[in-house]
Amino acid sequence: MESLIQTLSWISTALQVPVVVAILYLLARGLLALGDFYGRWSDRLRRTRGTGALATVPAGELLDLLTRASPRRADALRQALDALRQAPADAAWHERVVTEFELAADRRLALLRTMTRIGPLLGLMGTLIPLGPALVALAAGDIAVLARKMEVAFATTVVGLVIGAIGFLLHQAAQRWAMDDLSLLEFVSARLRGGPA
User: Fold this and answer.
1) Cα–Cα distance between 175 and 113 in angstroms, integer?
2) What is the pLDDT of residues 94-133, one digit of tens each?
3) Cα within 13 Å of Cα(104), Cβ side
4) 87, 93 in Cβ contact below 8 A?
5) Longest CA–CA separation in the chain, Å
């Protein structure tokens, strides 16, 4: 029985480095996502100002107006608008473009969902892993090791929660934006095909 406990303890201790590396990786991705969020937010402000009332714009000019208002070439909405331009009256093609846009939006949201769920989980793992050696150090009277292990435990908890908070807040905004863009794409598709907007 003692050998099983020692094996579990060894496995738990061996997981500390991968957990800390994963936390740092997700934190870096979260900070990059914050920068991307700011860029997309400023683009959306420009697009909102540049489009005005879309219902009054003729269908032939609608794509040009929205393309000019979306400055990023890599923006999923702009790519979908460019794809609609290829076959403006083909209903099947429009369905395919809208579906591809939905899939692309879901892929963009996947990282944020992962951060929301995995960040706190990794933080909890990073908290519990050093507690075993910290308790052993406490029993041995080694306060320096105890303090170092507790510092790691608290730091991983805080960073894991920060990752989860970043992921949650960005996911909420990105999901609303994706729904708004999808609604706009369906509106443009209906206008191009001459149906009711």
Assistant:
1) 10
2) 899 899 999 999 998 999 999 999 999 999 999 999 988 8
3) 17
4) yes
5) 80
What pLDDT was estimated at residue 78? 80
- Sign of the CA dihedral running 29, 32, 38, 39: negative
Contacts of 113 (CB under 8 A, 6+ apart): 167, 171
Domain residue limits, the chain: 2-192
Residue with tokens 């990105």: 174
Please state, in angstroms and rounded to a whole number, the distance separating the CA atoms of residues 68 and 165: 34
- Taking the C-alpha atoms of residue 49 and residue 69, their distance in angstroms, rounded to an integer, is 8
21-60 pLDDT, tens digit each: 999 999 999 999 999 899 888 877 877 765 556 666 666 6
pTM of the model: 0.80
